[in-house]
Amino acid sequence: MAAGDICPQTIRQCILEKTQARGAEKTICPSEVARELGGNDWRSLMDSVRQAGIALVDADKILVTQKGKVVDPHIAKGPIRYRLKAKR
User: Fold this and answer.
1) CA-CA distance, 24 to 87, in Å (whole number)?
2) In the chain, N or C terminus with fewer CB closer than 10 Å?
3) pLDDT at residue number 78
4) Other residues' Cβ atoms within 10 Å of the Cβ of residue 26
5) pTM of the model
């Protein structure tokens, strides 16, 4: 399967599975998701992974961090990480 053939729902599900497996206190790198789903073509999937992450933030499922601080993924530039949003 080519990276372009992976649907946004599959990417969102992979992000959620990886963040849940890591736990609420730890983060994952978006490239972990891209590498799992995209194989050797993972770099071409990075924009889609970032968009899926934004959708999950907007749905109140995950947080995006940079250097340990929660940031707005709509404006964040550079390396980011995903963390499961703690349930209240």
Assistant:
1) 9
2) C
3) 95
4) 11
5) 0.92
Its domain, for residue 30, covers 3-84
Structural domains in the chain (count): 1
Residue 17 belongs to domain with CATH number:
1.10.10.10
Residues near 5 by beta carbon (within 8 Å), at least 6 away in sequence: none
Predicted pLDDT at 4: 63
* Ranges of the chain with pLDDT below 50: none
Contact assessment for residue 43 and residue 4, using Cβ atoms and an 8 Å cutoff = no
Residue in this structure with the two tokens 């924009």, named with its chain if needed: 47
So what's the pLDDT on residue 86? 82
Go through the chain and tell me how many residues it has: 88
